[in-house]
Design a protein that fits this description.
Blueprint lengths: L1 H14 L4 E11 L6 E10 L9 E8 L5 E10 L5 H14 L4 E10 L2 E16 L4 H22 L2
Antiparallel strand pairs: 1-2, 2-3, 3-4, 4-6, 5-6
Helix pairs in contact: 1-3
Length: about 160
């Protein structure tokens, strides 16, 4: 839990200049079959404090089994970017910011051939070592600062 807490504090500081944190959720799951517990922090971020329809980033923080590192996964949902051309342009612009970003298109139909809802989500992830030493703390902060800047740019596409 300590690694998650430190990562969340660092992420909060890094994101402050690049977006607005809407909500933070800590999830803890305990397996009934195995003596295992997992934890995850989910952070919801938008570019601005406006309530208007805008891209929403969902950032997941997962501690890795060794407890010395944390996986950071970001998913950015874009309302209104469901057309194939718009999605392709969005993906190209996003890849200029984060080369390893992937795109998922979701189509929901109520009848065959009649789309009721379309959505586009960009996602990427990376691993950050826990800030155990001063050197690791500097690398962690640099990685989270770079992530926050990239996320801010992706939210404004």
């Amino acid at each position: 839990m300590f690694v998650l807490q430190r990562m969340m504090e660092a992420l909060d500081q890094a994101l402050s200049g690049h977006g607005v944190i809407r909500d933070v959720i800590l999830r803890t799951e305990h397996s009934l079959l195995e003596d295992e517990e997992t934890r995850e922090i989910t952070v919801y971020v938008t570019a601005t404090a406006e309530e208007a329809e805008q891209p929403l980033a969902t950032v997941h923080l997962f501690p890795l089994p060794d407890g010395a590192a944390c996986e950071v996964e970001a998913e950015i949902a874009y309302p209104g970017a469901g057309e194939a051309e718009a999605a392709a342009r969005l993906w190209e612009r996003a890849r200029a910011i984060v080369p390893e970003v992937s795109l998922t298109e979701k189509r929901r139909c109520l009848k065959p051939g009649v789309p009721a809802e379309r959505g586009v989500t960009l996602d990427f992830h990376f691993v950050v070592e826990g800030p155990e030493t001063d050197e690791a703390n500097v690398r962690c902060r640099q990685a989270l600062d770079r992530f926050a800047a990239d996320l801010g740019r992706l939210l404004r596409l």
